[in-house]
User: Fold this.
Amino acid sequence: MSGQYDLIIVGGGISGASLLYTTAKFTDIDSVALIEKEPEIAAINSHHTNNSQTLHFGDIETNYTLEKAEEVKEGAELLAGYLEHYDDDREMHAKRSKMVLGVGEDEVEALERRYDEEGFGDLFSKLQAIDREEIAEYEPKVVDGRDPDEEMLALQTPDGYVVDYGEVTKSLVERAKEEASVDVHTGTELTEITPTVDGYTLETDAGRFDCDVATVAAGSHSLQIAKELGYGEDKVLLPVAGSFFLADDLLNGKVYTLQMKKLPFAAVHGDADVHDPSVTRFGPTAKLVPALERGRISTVTDFLDVFGLNAASVLSYANILSDRILLPYVLENLVYDLPTVGPKAFLPHVQKVVPSVELDDIERAKGYGGVRPQIVDTTEKSLDMGEAKIVGEDIIFNITPSPGASTCLKNAMRDTRTIIDFFDGEYEFDESAFRADTIDNFPRADEERLSPDVDTSERSTASISDVPATDD
Assistant:
């Protein structure tokens, strides 16, 4: 197998698929190929068991600043618009209520400040502050069994998109393959990438490919490939494996707890599963692992390759892990994987969401969870709180921890602009058509709200009251 293309995308997860879709459907680039090492698309982190199935808008993620929320919001709306446009049968997503819960005086005051003074109520016009009685209408088990004198407040929104990112990935690829200019090569592992006079040569275990422009969207492996070409020398990875606990039907939608602003990891939250609302998932936990893929020992050497075992990497890790907030968090999360002790240690986090839960009600979710590559800046010796993009000569490398899946189409839009620039005006990007296909389908605040008192199977289409007709 071999081929010559204008553009080659390495990586068949949600990020690579989004770029394939955007360039195939909304540019006039003559030939585009996607290369994926696994036999199937979306086999690793995009698979629905390997992530929290959340579409992050920034509305209830309390470790987001207002500026970050503004950035993430457009990306989430692009993907939500795609889902609204192409998933009427709810095969790729479900729509449920979503809230962040404050318990106790300090947390209630923090949410009030966030909503009113910090501007989140203005930025997200569907977001509403609700009290104990209203919380109970949406999520009865969040209130049942709780001290009646304990203060409670939640910021709630109907934009609780529960997403099967694996199915979205497949949908994006299938729509891209409708174009004659597109080829998709699965079971094709990149072994070497070499710059040439005209672009790049990609050696794979299935043959050689040549292209004018390349984009690498291979998760944790993106930085490894970048370093092989001399890029990203000031970065290493802190791989974090997420895990979950499962319970029976406890929640109708998503219930988050307040997050610590210094941590890039999500606070424990409860979610009804995207395909089975009778299952509630709690997590994630966050365990540091010396590997780039969960459960694959072979990727330990890949991690060491990226880490480099040099003084800058070691000192960066030491500085990060000595932090008085992060170190206890890391140690605590190691405990959750221990038999018997782990579920007992994790139980208080579940009870903060659903007080009536007992130890026998939860079990570790076997086979769930992926690895998220947190980026470390070895110059600053600190964690980069977000995605990393390295732009080289006619090549782009994407390293996308959370919320990379949520902002996949926004990232693809940006990369498409850069790719068009690489081609020096030879091709064009119809961004208005791209927006019409995606974000223009996102329901704005003049849509009716989700009802708290309907059967959960009808929540995706139900409504209660009108809200002001202002843009979100």
